[in-house]
Amino acid sequence: AFTVNQYQTLQGRLSALRWSPTLRFIGVGGLMYTASSVQGSFEALRSMNAVTHFTHYTVAHAHLGLYGFVSFVFFGAMYFVMPRITAREWPYPALITAHFWLVSSGFALYFVSLTTAGWLQGMAMLDAARPVMDSVAVTLPYLKGRSVGGAFMVLGHLVFAAHFMALTLGFGPQRDKPALFRQLFRKAATA
Q1: What is the pLDDT of residue 186?
Q2: What is the pTM of this model?
């Protein structure tokens, strides 16, 4: 229902996702909610659950809902609410772009790594001929990928925190218009 509502609301205005930081974060968060719901439905199937239960796959699924949905919507809400609370626009739109791409790419790497690790781990645990330690060893390269993805996410959070502090403490340029992604693209095209 959430995704259908979002799509119907934006119908004919999907280009707003390119310009609005709030809408981009909340839109991606909504897609993560839908993906989490679909993945959870498949994970409930007995044949799938036999492979994925007690593996990193379930951790990836939990993060898809918790980080992918909740955090992205939270960030979108902060980008909308804070200028209204402080009566000041976000000073550096480039930091919003950096934040979005760091957490998006970091989360994508994190999620794909854990999902793949969990599937391989489950397959190894179901093979009675393999020792249990094989199910741990097979995940190690993917856990490194998860760590790299997590580092990108943390870096994105630090960018957000620095930008949040600049906004609340009044640092940076005073802007009289909303911080939209469009302005970044126009500057790049005219430069």
Answers
A1: 53
A2: 0.88
